[in-house]
Structures are given as structure tokens and as C-alpha cells.
């Protein structure tokens, strides 16, 4: 898969975004938050992500090392994306693939990632 533009958002639509993503680089992390929320994530530089609705509404959750700023909707509770930094310091957005509009999840094959051991 190549990088392409996607739109998505939370369940109720209060938080919406557009992002350029390569779904072939998605991961299924086994850390406590990703496994409990069922997140499938893919990452993009922050400049390739735009929140198009609800930026003033985002609620944030930090845990563990406070490295990833998990954003969730105050109305429906869905985490559609998060913000953080790549290992090289590049600011990035982590997008919940399950929140992309019209996505065929059977066509996405996330790579397992052992976040529980980090």
C-alpha cells in the first residue's frame, strides 16, 4: 500500500481529521491501553495530519511515561488519534485505523508490536 489521504473521526463525529497515511505500516500494540481499546495504529508526521473538527473539544489521557498524548472525544469516548514523537524526535500523529471512514479492516494487516515490554 502507498500513502494516501484518509478522513476519519470519532463515533459521534465531534472529532474529525484528515491524514496522509500508509496503512501497510500499521501496528497492533499489546500495551495496556492499546489492547483494552482495541487500537490499530498507523503513524504520520504531524504536518500530514489535520484535525478538521472538534479541536477545542479534545480530551487528553496520559499514562506511563507521558510520551503519547491520547486524544479522545468527550461525548462518545472514542480515541481517534494521539500525538507524540518518533524516536528521532519528529512530531507525529498516531491514527486509530478503526476510525477511518470506509476502511475495510480485513484488508489491513497490522504488524504486532510488543509495547507491553517497554
TrEMBL record:
Keyword Metal-binding listed? The answer is: yes
Q: Where is the CENP-V/GFA domain?
A: 6-114
Indicate what this protein is called per its UniProt record: Aldehyde-activating protein
Give GO MF terms, alphabetically. carbon-sulfur lyase activity; metal ion binding
Query: Record's Gene3D superfamilies?
Result: 2.170.150.70
Similarity field: Belongs to the Gfa family.
Q: Does the keyword Translocase apply?
A: no
Question: What lineage is on file?
Answer: Bacteria, Pseudomonadati, Pseudomonadota, Betaproteobacteria, Burkholderiales
A Pfam family that this protein carries is: GFA
Q: Which UniProt keywords apply?
A: Metal-binding, Zinc
Lineage top rank: taxon: Bacteria
SUPFAM superfamilies noted in UniProt: Mss4-like
Amino acid at each position: 500500500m502507498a500513502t494516501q489521504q484518509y478522513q476519519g473521526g470519532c463515533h459521534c463525529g465531534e472529532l474529525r481529521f484528515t491524514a496522509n497515511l500508509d496503512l501497510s505500516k500499521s501496528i497492533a500494540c499489546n500495551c495496556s491501553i492499546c489492547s483494552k481499546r482495541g487500537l490499530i495504529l498507523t503513524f504520520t508526521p504531524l504536518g500530514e495530519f489535520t484535525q478538521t473538527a472538534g479541536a477545542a473539544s479534545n480530551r487528553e489521557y496520559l499514562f506511563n511515561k507521558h510520551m503519547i498524548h491520547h486524544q479522545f472525544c468527550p461525548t462518545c469516548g472514542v480515541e481517534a488519534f494521539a500525538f507524540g514523537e518518533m524516536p528521532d524526535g519528529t512530531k507525529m500523529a498516531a491514527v486509530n485505523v478503526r476510525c477511518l471512514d470506509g476502511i475495510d479492516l480485513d484488508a489491513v494487516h497490522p504488524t504486532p508490536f510488543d509495547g507491553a515490554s517497554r
